Amino acid sequence: MLLSAAVWLQATDLFTYIRLQSYVYAAILSLHLVAISVFGGLIVLTDLRLLGWAMRGRPIADVIDQSRRLKWIGFVCAVTCGFLLFGSKAEEYYYNAFFRAKVTMFLLVGVHALIFRPIVYNRAAELDLAPQIPARAKLAAALSLLLWTGIMIMGRGIGYIDVPFGLHAGFGETLAAIANQV
Amino acid sequence: MLQIADVLNSSPLVFPVLECFHIAGFIVAIGTTAAADFRLLDWGFRRQTPAQLSKDVSPWMLGGLLVAIFSGLALYSSDPDMYYLNWSFLIKMACLVIALVFNYTIHRRVAQGVAQSVAQSAAPSEAPPVSAKIVAGVSLVLWASIIFGGIFIAFINPGL
């Protein structure tokens, strides 16, 4: 059912247009990366502050509260561009092991938010009052950096698989395909 | 250089791995600079002065930049002829040089200058002048154009 939805999606006028106009596709991909730079840079900044590695002179609450809105704007732009890119090659993406890994990691980001938002990100003022940055805040930051780095790597990996090579493509098969193509 | 190029072409995984370092590097560099630009545009970070913010992010900006540039040099060395003949790559390099010069001259000076005027009025939340906003806008456009230039390298027909 997912596959037929993907086939339907990429056959729509909009996504057919994006697929056939390679410069339009490239422009959307560029915007995707511009948004990621803004969004990702702010996430790195926040996580580095939670780890105590950057902006140590500023309260944690300042860094988290002030970057939240800009992060959301960057995230929405990145996801919108990402959806346009996905939709234009939805069938291919359905088979793409890197895309599947990326989606899985997004779900893990959701779990991360459910766990750490109530105890870390929404309690920034408390973190500032603690004599040292609490371990849970550092754990949240480290996991966030790991997850987003993984998403970045999987996102780059998607482009290395051009042709669908069967259902349930595993990572071994994927790496072999890369070896053949590069 | 030849040895580096040999290593690059010896394994199919080296190029994608280098690309990931390149992307991570420019995300940190451009993202942190963007934060300082958003402050100058008065879109956020009002509890810090532009000078404080740009001083806070500058080591990370530089670190990300170095990672992006050195991984970029390695990527370039894998196939120099192709890049040299690629107009998108040439535009990207031109934008990069302009952005670097702009960042470490006008951009830096404006962030510091805005800090001084803010210090005199003793109100960190005060909106920067229009000239500072223009400088921030130019900075954002320059860095974004480098990303566009990089992506389009793979999408254009080779040859000038």
Write up what this structure looks like.
- The complex is a heterodimer of chains A (182) and B (160).
- With 182 residues, chain A is mainly α.
- Chain A is built from nine helices and no strands.
- The longest helix of chain A is centred in the first third of the chain and has 30 residues.
- About 3% of the residues of chain A have low confidence.
- The model of chain B has no long low-confidence stretch (mean pLDDT 86).
- Chains A and B meet through helix 3, helix 4, helix 8 and helix 9 of A and helix 2, helix 3 and helix 6 of B.
Question: Could you give a short description of this structure?
Answer:
The complex is a heterodimer of chains A (182) and B (160). Chain A is mainly alpha-helical.
Helix content of chain B: over 70%
- What pair of chains forms the biggest interface? A-B, 40 and 38 residues
How confident overall, as mean pLDDT of chain A?
88
Content of β-strand of chain A: under 5%
Give the percentage of residues in beta strands of chain B.
under 5%
Shape of chain A: elongated
The gyration radius over C-alpha positions of chain B equals: 18 Å
List the main descriptive attributes of the protein structure presented here.
heterodimer, A: mainly alpha, 9 helices, 81% helix, 0% strand, B: 160 residues, mainly alpha, 6 helices, elongated
